[in-house]
Amino acid sequence: MPNHSEQKPFIGRFSNLPSPPAILIELIDSCNNPDVSFAQLAETIRKDAGVSSQVITAANSPFYRQWKEISDLHRLLVVLGIRSVRTIAINSAVQQFFAKLSKQTGRVLDKIWYQSLMCAETARSLAELTTYPIPDEAYLAGLLHRLGQLALLQAYPDDYQAILDKGLEGEALVAAEKEMLDFTSPQVGSQMIDSWELQSFLSDAVLYQYEPADTILDSSHLVKLINLASQLSASDAKPGNEALERADSLFGLNQTVIEERLQKAQEKAAKAAQSLGIALPSQKSDQHAQRHQDALAERVKQAALFGGGLEPMPEKPDMIATMQQIQRDLDLLFGIKQICFLLQEQDGTALHPLSPTTTNSNLLDGITLSTASDRSLAASAFNQRKALFSRDEENQTLVTVVDQQLARFLKSDGVLYLPLSSQQSTQGLIVVGMSQHQWQSLSSQHALLNLFAREAAEMLQRQHNMLGSQQQMIDDERAAFHLEARKVVHEVNNPLGIINNYLHILGMKLGEDHQVQEELDIIKEEISRVGKIILRVRDIPDELEQQVKSVDINQLIQDLNKLFQSSLFTTHNIVTELDLDPNIPQLGTSRGHLKQILTNLIKNAVEAMPEGGKLSIASRDNAYLNGKAHIEIQITDDGPGIDKEIMDQLFSPGKTTKDSSHSGLGLAIVKNLIDELSGSINCTSNTESGTRFQLFLPRVG
Q1: What is the rounded CA–CA span in Å between residue 554 and residue 697?
Q2: Does 335 score more than 90 pLDDT?
């Protein structure tokens, strides 16, 4: 157990933790400075060998340039651009950080780092939505928000793991840490970040991540972002009421927008986690903890050995992306740039060439190599599971026209065939365009080339297995759905029929001339319609997908009007008037985005009329803007208008018509969401007629 009286020196024992985050902050700050030069960026990057190698490798790969090799760091940055430099810096820092900490308890470490990646992606998404000026700083703060947990797990693996095994989160976790250790993981993480002496509120964001929302309303933007992102990323489930209330309190964001952002963050975090060998919360493992630690450490070592690439291995089955990653790694390790693949066809009797990047890959379509006998050097390499080079003297008699064609396709005077042999099978060959001189220069690395080919084969085999599993899962889910659909149809139609019969009996008792007969007929028609819908239940997924992609603008406005009539409008003495164009078609846009936009504008209008007033909402079809048809929505109030100094920067963060208790982000969020919908917004305001907002959405069905 720790000595409680030595709380301050506690941080010093973690001086061996990696320093790339400080370099990353410096790079991010530089990249966000409009006056920065590439020479200044080069000076920063030279401080870290990992980032430098990533830059050099990326800029010299076929994915970024098509001219001769570049070696000057300044010129490399010009090729890549500032955005790519920032991405490389973040990836490099994360990989090195994982490498330092990969030998901790496996499953607990997996959970901490997955939540860190999840929080980072969520924080960046929220930062972009709420117009935080440095989204990548928010990403880094999210990535490091559980840094203190990693430090405590390293220092007190048994005691602290006992705390984490309880599954506590938020304030409950902090209380347990305080009781056992006399300090908390946010305090530890914050002190560690303070030791880096950054010009940032990053340490505060980590320190106050579990504070109640009402205590940080006036704090810095970054603190509020991480506070919300930490709450949202604590589990893989949909956000609960507490998290949604926090989102509304801190930024005025509704449930739909939060869930959309969170889902995209989960997809990105899962993809990044897989590339780093991190088990997802939904994955179960019965492996011993030490085995898991060793496997994770081995994955990190292989990522370092084979480059890791700028993109993680795809989570979803994607053979082309995997082959592109293999090509990048060959370039990084061996300077090999010209390759293609010969993959075994389903019948197992032939190989078909495939190039994942070459622009003239269609030239390979007409080539098929039989493996029935060793009638080509490629066939011999495949059948013998042996690397063969066409320029070696002992192989000359096996070289045929097809081998020479592949060499010419790769713009080389020779080809090296590397078998893609995994434990399960031989899937094909990597075909490398190589000269005699290159082959001799790699003489000391022939064993490593074979090792690389085996690792590449395992990657491709995993992709193949994933494709098979995915298809099986789709087939199983489809069968299960249709079975459940038939059950629903059978079970629901029975009570509907009983209800319909009783309505008929009730109608007979009341008599044909009774005044409610018309209402009873309407109920019968609706029940009949429900029955028809139930009978089409197997088509519901497709229908729902179409509904998500199309929005009834007028219905949405009416729904919001009805919602606010019983709450906001009543309490503020607001009279509403709707003027909706009935000819407006279904609009192909995001319902969640549009609902958030209208909600923000309606709330702004109501709060601009504290003594009550009139709020008008109108819609109009075929409103032409820049020669193109749009749907127009107008929201007008008869309040006192907006001051000129606010109008000049109306959609900028912090500019608000409300009192100081508001964040001033409502209209900035509206502008961001409108931009995402490819629409535009306009505002006119004066003291006589009030304020009018005009939304223009592209008229695309």
Answers
A1: 13
A2: no
Residue with tokens 């898991």: 292
Please tell me the CATH code under which domain 553-698 is placed. 3.30.565.10
Q: Are 109 and 101 in contact (CB under 8 A)?
A: yes
Q: Quick check: 399 and 377 in contact, CB under 8 A?
A: yes
State the pLDDT confidence band at 646, using cuts at 50, 70 and 90: confident
Q: What CATH number has the domain spanning 309-467?
A: 3.30.450.40
Superfamily of domain 104-308: Hypothetical protein af1432 (1.10.3210.10)
Q: Most confidently modeled of 114-123, 471-480, 565-574, 631-640?
A: 631-640
Percent with pLDDT over 70 in the chain: 68
Supply the angle between the helices 170-181 and 185-194 in degrees, to the nearest 10: 80
Helix axes 82-101, 20-31, angle to 10 degrees: 170
Tokens of 580: 């909706």
Please name the amino acid found at residue 684: T
- 8 Å CB contact between 611 and 573: yes
Q: Residue 146 in contact with residue 185, Cβ under 8 Å?
A: yes
User: Is 687 exposed, middle or buried (CB count within 10 Å of its CB: 0-12, 13-18, 19+)?
Assistant: exposed
Terminal C-alpha separation, the chain: 65
Mean pLDDT of 162-171: 85
Q: Exposure string (b/e) for 311-323, b if CB count within 10 Å is 16 or more?
A: bbbbbebebebbb
CATH 1.10.10 fits 474-544, yes or no: no
Q: What does the block give as tokens for 681?
A: 């917004």
